[in-house]
Amino acid sequence: MKKNTIHLFLLICLCMVGVAKAQIGHFPDANVPDHTPMMNSTWEAIDKMMYKVTTENNKKIYTPHYPPALKALENKIVELPGYLVPLNSGRNHKTFMLSVLPVMQCMFCGSNGIPPMVEIFMKTDAIKFTEEPIKVKGKMVFNPEPLKGNAEIQIVDAVLVK
């Protein structure tokens, strides 16, 4: 019985590999989204942010907690690579989210949690939407009232790094 189960499992795996190869062969020009890893020490510090959960009047309150590695970046100029995630429709964006993953892969967010993101406020020029990675440089600040609609971590007076 055990031997038959193992053989069946191996057969299913081989069939799945065969189907995948056949699909790739039938669609050689398919544009499968991929991404360049954006994680760096700044993103790693951002990714460590947690929430303190308290209850007030039977309502859960989530308060951001900034660990020391992240707190050390507050009010510092940082460079952050990532992918532009629009907050509003349109071609050009002065305010947007920056993510370690492209928006095209957002459907996979739920598999390992939501990827780290920060809100970007450009100093002057708006950035034209792109699916390619960008890099911004600006001052990292923590939003004192994130429950009022903006992200907990923001980069202000940002400029595009070429």
Question: Which descriptors would you attach to this protein?
Answer:
single chain, 162 residues, alpha+beta, five-stranded mixed β-barrel, two-stranded antiparallel ribbon, 3 helices, disordered N terminus
> How big is the Rg?
21 Å
How many angstroms separate the termini?
Answer: 62 Å
What is the averaged pLDDT score?
78
The topology string of helices and strands comes to HHEEHEEEEEEE
Q: What does the largest sheet look like?
A: 5 strands, mixed, barrel
The structure class reads alpha+beta
Shape: globular
Question: Number of DSSP strands?
Answer: 9
Strand content: 25-35%
Order of strands, widest sheet:
3-5-6-9-8
**Helix content bin:** 10-25%
Number of helices: 3
List low-pLDDT spans: 2-27
Report on this model:
The protein has 162 residues and is α+β, with helices and mostly antiparallel strands. Helices cover 22% and strands 35% of the residues. The chain has helices spanning 2-26, 41-47, 68-71; strands spanning 50-56, 59-65, 77-86, 92-93, 95-99, 117-122, 127-128, 134-142, 153-160. The strands form 3 sheets. A 5-stranded mixed beta barrel has the order 3-5-6-9-8. Strands 1-2 form a two-stranded antiparallel ribbon. A two-stranded antiparallel ribbon has the order 4-7. Strand 1 (50-56) and strand 2 (59-65) form a beta hairpin. The longest helix is centred in the first third of the chain and has 25 residues, at 2-26. The protein is globular, with a radius of gyration of 21 Å.
